[in-house]
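ESCALATION

Customer reports they have been waiting on this structure for their group meeting. Please prioritize. Original submission:
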Amino acid sequence: MRDPAVSRNVAGQLSPARRAADLRRLQSERFDVLVIGGGVTGAGAAVDAAARGLKVALVEARDLAAGTSSRSSKLIHGGLRYLEQLEFGLVHEALTERGLLATRLAPHLVRPVPILVPLPGDHSVRELPARAWRRAYYGAGVAAYDAFAGVFGGGRGMPLHKHLTRDGARRLFPSLRPDVVTGAIRYYDGQVDDARLVVTLARTAASLGAAVVTSTRAVGMVRQAREVTGVRVRDMESGTEFEVRARTVIAATGVWSDDMSTMLGDVGVRPGLRVRASKGVHLVVPRSAITGDAGLILRTARSVLFVLPWGGHWIIGTTDTDWRLDRAHPAASASDIEYLLDNVNTVLDRPLTTADIEGVYAGLRPLLSGEADSTSKLSREHAVVEPMLGLMLVAGGKYTTYRVMAADVVDRAARRLGVNRPSRTDQLPLLGADGFEATWRDRLDLARRHGIQAGVLEHLLERYGTLSFDLLTMIQAEPLLASPLAGAPEYLAAEVAYAAQAEGALHVDDVLTRRTRISFETAHRGAESAEHAAEIMGRVLGWDAAVRAREVEHYLARVAAERQSQTMPDDATADAARLGAPDVRGFAADRGALPT
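Update from on-call: job pushed to the front of the queue and completed.
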């Protein structure tokens, strides 16, 4: 539990001093709940357990949201396509969570984004019955989507859908080819910076007293007979290993979930679930490449394709293919990129080419293994199992339903601990949410008072909420932090300093890839920003010239390896190219399963 004399914002700072203190806690205390995994589900579980008054620790091998949780389509959504698969419970659950995030838990991070469902066909007379049927069919689906979210009330967080003619659709999205659509239906879902949400969750857990330590890799289970009593971890920054004692251990390790069987193999324990990794690739192009004021959702032969506005950019994705290669650094191949361009170009009046691409990112969805050959047909339901006393595994699910997954696994841990306190995270605003609506309403006056442009303050509020005042205080103390970061004018130098000072960022890659999204929002992929970022971080973290140079070298090598991988024809060659750059944390085991 945090000291009541310390504010939530201060208690939630993941500073260098806080990391050192939390490392000492890991070695000296016994925790009620130890969470392995700093993705959205693990961070959510840490918040849930800490909010129940339990003593909590979270360890993450790399960085917060370093895996799947920073590489999504940036949507908080119910999954319109799951209605066709008759997964009504999943859709309703996800839409309920979408409403909570957009209205109560994280309104500073989750906001509505309009999306068009184009109605295909031509305007010939013989097509009239088919056109009417398609509009009725798609319209019924979107109407059901709205109904599952709750037709009326502030808890929806999103406007209702609307039918559009072809001309109406093209007014909203002029880049739509007029010969391939007969109209559209506009609906709304939530958009989020996925990595920022995870960082905010981790900081919220820390504000409730949890020890949150990144760059601490779980390398084995500590057992007494057939009961797990802790985890052996390695501090990847120093190389030291030690044991963390815990009454229960929650593994929220996503596509690494099956590796628990490796850790427990000597006692013949099976994990009780299997996870398949499905690769999703996204392209990022400049806003000028497509003319439109809404997103698109399109059907393809193998997946659902989104075209989503993202600030001064568009995100186009995703693929949905089995992935059995390196899980730490999934690679996008030239064939993935070609697939996305070919499919999006079927509806655009000016076809996109590889020359339009600013950035590419690939992530892995952890899907519960089933009998379906195609990963796109696997359910997005989640599962919680206890393969050994004291060890809970949670896997599957959707980013949007992280809070439900977290509550389910912590419920199981609480029962084992004899704690009868229900989850209350549906009522707990995340850091930055308190007072956000009033601050947003008064943003023009606030900008004048702080002597900054209104657009700059809006940028900060949409990324930090009311924590923006922390950055404004930093800028007042050091005005040079108000200048843009080199090569990335959309971001302030203060954001890099704040990432190292309060958000647990330990490396340049953490800042350029996750605390900001410079790695895929710029044509140079962050290469022109790395040296400036290292200089700013170095002042906070005490780096000398040699460390700064090493950080820049690692980042540039990563960018070069990713660029090369994206020219390779298939997964195997792309994976080999991507692995040409070592991880900045020096993982020897990143190429395979977790070591025992």
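Sent to customer with the following note: The chain is about 40% helix and 20% strand.
Escalation resolved.
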